[in-house]
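Obj: model holo form, ligand = adenosine-5'-diphosphate.
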Amino acid sequence: MPGVEILANEINTILRGRFYQPVSDSAAALFAALAALAVIILLGLAQGKYEAMKQIGVLAGLLALILFGSYFVFAYGFIVPPLVPVLASFIVAAPLALLRRSLSASVYLDERIAELLAAERRLFTNGRKRLSPDSNRLRLDTGEELESPTNFPTDKFYLPRGLEWKSDALGFLSRDLINRAVFVDSALRSIEDVLLIGDRDGQIIFANRSARRIFNLPERKLLGRNIFEQLNEAENKIADSTEEAEETLAQLTIDQNSIEREITVGKNDSRSFVLRMAAVVGRNENDAGETLGIIATLSDITQHRELQKTKNDVIALVTHELRTPLTAIQGMSEVLTEHAVEPESQRKMLLTINTEAKRLASMINEYLDITRLEAGAQAINFAPIVVESLLERILLMLEPLAAKREIKIVHCYLLNHTTVSADAERLAQMLTNIVGNAIKYSPPHTSITIETRASGGMLEIIVADEGFGISAEQLPRIFEKFYRAPQRQTTETTGTGLGLALAREIAELHGGYISAESEPNKGSTFTVHLPLAPENREISRPS
Ligand code: ADP
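Output (holo structure tokens):
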């Protein structure tokens, strides 16, 4: 280009005033500060999910903005941008902001570690290791000790711990807390009582081993069920109305009242339990006093109940049953010693004393027999017994008694040589009581039929009399201990009220039972059902 043209262009530029203008120092400083501020603010905002990507994106975007902005103002605005100070500020601010963020994250982590440490000290130990409350040292599994910070979490000038310390402490604490949680879980599962834990709505979230055994359900079937429905079902109760269940739930969760009542679980082999329900109440700062769920325990009191019943029986025996014969003995012996009594009356009185003393003795013996059998303290000696022979042996003793009352005993053995596995002595005791009753409770000139037959794998020994009979109201009670049908308690039919109770216990111990049918003034039929020994099962098959 010729020199004159260059000069003309210069003059033109001067005349039009188109110059590149440098920014002032203060404006450059302002832009640099703005860049640093943008870095801090944008990095502060780039948090949460994909944090690293967001941060890189934010920094790259900001750098691109600075570069493009500078180019733009240079090319079109005729301004020389303060690129160097702005870039220097960007480069210094970015790592500093990142450092600040990582420091606050580090302090946050230390605070969480402090919380875990506090929990570690307060929660149940797993029985193996425990952080001593006055020590600030965490003992790691390796045996190494870490000193725990004492000045966090609220100290103003707190300098966070290094990453290695944190990862060690976190590793130790999480392992330790998991161990403890597992230990508590195992401890709850091992509780002998039934333990059910429900959430606030009453849905089962935990059931221990005993619960699975008593309800006869696997854990997966129990979990998620409604606790009240489960208890109702176990009790065989027609389900309570929903309102009733809701009312109980509210009583537990809102009023935080506890509930205690007795329930019976199971149909045939029923057991008694005390059911206790209460609210699980939070004790952390954030949930102190709040209901977190409900807890139900069932404690087995069956044995306790049975003991109580035995105790009551003993009291009844001593207070009522033993007193009657004792009073007779006492009264008559007093008369005999203090007064002159005619020889005939004297003989009668002595006879009564003897009868009553015998009654007293048999009452005590029978009662002891029953309690021993019930408690399983009396060994049963099972052996093959030929029933017909046993019956003959008993009748040999009882027939004279029947003959005395002019009662005929008819033997009618449909089977012959039937064997059952039984304790001969106990079986004889049972049959003597039943046949003895038939004689005792029958008027003269009647007959008693004794029959044996087989039905459905069971042997039936039927003793039918034509005696006084038992009324329909009294019939269900005759197997109770000490129960005697009232109208027949004459001296002629002395008894203890224990014979049938003992007979029933013996039948049950042999895997059988006794049934009774009766019609007043027509007669009674007692049937003993016993399992047949396997070798004569075929005789019981219907032909
Ligand atoms: P007890 O010592 O009074 O005979 P049990 O337990 O043997 O006691 O019988 C209970 C009651 O059942 C008797 O008191 C009697 O009233 C009634 N009982 C039992 N067997 C007969 C029978 N064969 N006929 C009428 N009543 C009977």
